[in-house]
Write a structure and sequence with these properties.
single chain, 261 residues, alpha/beta, five-stranded antiparallel beta sheet
Length: 261
């Protein structure tokens, strides 16, 4: 269960943006869909603990990460979130293997045998074993995404937070990487929250989409049940197997009601 209600404000001195977003779902993949500047990235950063809201809560899998009223604010590095940044944020001076292992080590602690085995399994699972000693600059966009996703999974996260996961890829690669990401997430059984302004991402990956406008969730679209609801807060039952998208035209129409493009 992912249950989020957040209020925060950001300002650059001349402009101010107020986020007041709330959504809840048990769906395997939740998409926050909307135009640039709607508040999607702020929501994801606050969920991860990279921004502190002034009020609200973040609850994932029965664990409270943030509760303004109760004074709970779990540090970002102990929340159990695997964060995939839009441009991957790989360390250019580290090898592929050391990038994947980064979150499992500190300056005073080397990689344990169990952690080293997990890193090796991730490298193999993502087809990166032959590139383990390569630097990120020598990799293709798809390979860099696989490294970033392997790194996000290395710490056994409770949830994957995906920030525009295909924005840095050329259009020819996006469909292939959507399929790979869907397969990886299903194999590891980890819920995900994805932000995107691309309707194709939503249709390919999400079970439920919350349409974000002006810092608020204004509509929920159940992509498995082909329903649209005007409420911004919805609790959905997880689907063990996604039904065929026979009514994709209707899904597109529902999303187009708030199409940011």
């Amino acid at each position: 269960m992912i249950d989020v209600a957040l209020q925060l404000s950001v300002s650059d001195g001349r402009r101010r943006f107020d986020l007041d977003v709330a959504f809840a779902s048990e769906a395997p993949v939740v998409a926050l869909y909307g135009p640039s500047g709607a508040g999607k990235s702020l929501t994801l950063q606050a969920m991860a603990g990279l921004l502190k809201p002034r009020a609200g809560h973040v609850r994932v899998g029965g664990r409270t990460w943030f509760d303004g009223a109760a004074g709970i604010d779990v540090p970002a590095d102990t929340r159990g979130a695997g964060y995939l940044f839009q441009h991957y944020a790989l360390f250019p001076h580290l090898s592929v293997r050391r990038n994947v292992a980064f979150g499992l080590t500190t300056w005073c602690r080397a990689l344990s045998r169990a952690d080293a085995q997990r890193v090796d399994e991730l490298l193999e699972g993502f087809g990166l074993t032959a590139l383990a000693h390569s630097r990120p600059r020598t990799l293709s966009g798809g390979q860099q995404q696989r490294v970033a996703l392997a790194r996000a999974l290395a710490c056994n996260p409770q949830v994957l937070l995906l920030d525009e996961p295909f924005a840095a890829l050329n259009p020819q690669l996006r469909q292939q990487l959507r399929e790979e990401l869907s397969a990886v997430r299903a194999r590891w059984g980890i819920p995900a929250v994805m932000i995107t302004h691309d309707v194709e991402d939503v249709l390919a990956l999400a079970n439920v989409a919350f349409l974000i406008e002006g810092g608020r969730a204004v509509r929920a679209v159940d992509l498995d049940r082909v329903q649209s609801r005007d409420t911004a807060r919805s609790v959905l039952q997880p689907q063990s197997e996604r039904p065929a998208r026979a009514d994709e035209a209707r899904l597109r129409a529902l999303l187009a009601a708030h199409d940011p493009t």
